[in-house]
Amino acid sequence: MTNTNCLEDIRCPKCGQEDRFFITGCAQFEVTDDGSEAVGGHEWDDESSTRCPGCGHDAPLKDFRVRPDLPPDPEGKNDDHAAWAGAAVARFIEVTATDEEDALGDLLADLMHWSDRNNYDFDAALDRARLHYEAETTPESSP
Ligand SMILES: [Zn+2]
User: Fold this and answer.
1) Which residue(s) pair with 36 in the sheet?
2) Segments making up each domain of the chain, as ranges
């Protein structure tokens, strides 16, 4: 789904979810001794605390903006690919309690150990992954 309104260019950088977020904003209330009532609308900005209900990632809204420097996506599926990997990394962090900044390297090292114990050729799989990535990020008009 591509958002074109309130969530245009907003996507969870961890899991790729883009349908729903919890954003802490500001609103004005008329308060009397009897209670309160919202007056007017509400607002938020790029510094507003934002949480992804998909994976729990919590950061300022600006961190959820889609980065403009992503490689080409000729098949329009790279968000899905990233989201699937994001789910795996999120689960890895959950199981191992590793720091987020170390998760990718730790996961790759653990996959090397897993490959040793399950008769897989990690280097061959990594070569295959690079070929897939190159195909998925090369514009179709390129030779
Ligand atoms: Zn998320």
Assistant:
1) 31
2) 1-68, 78-136
In the structure, ligand 1 is a single-atom ion and the residues with CB under 5 Å from it are 12, 14-15, 17, 52, 54-55, 57
- Please compute the mean of the pLDDT values over residues 63-73 and round it to a whole number: 84
When pLDDT is cut at 50, 70 and 90, the band that residue 32 belongs to is: very high
Global pTM value: 0.54
Using CB atoms within 10 A of its CB, is residue 34 exposed (0-12), middle (13-18) or buried (19+)?
Answer: exposed
Q: Please tell me the distance between residue 93's alpha carbon and the centre of ligand 1 in angstroms.
A: 13
Highest mean pLDDT among 9-23, 56-70, 118-132: 118-132
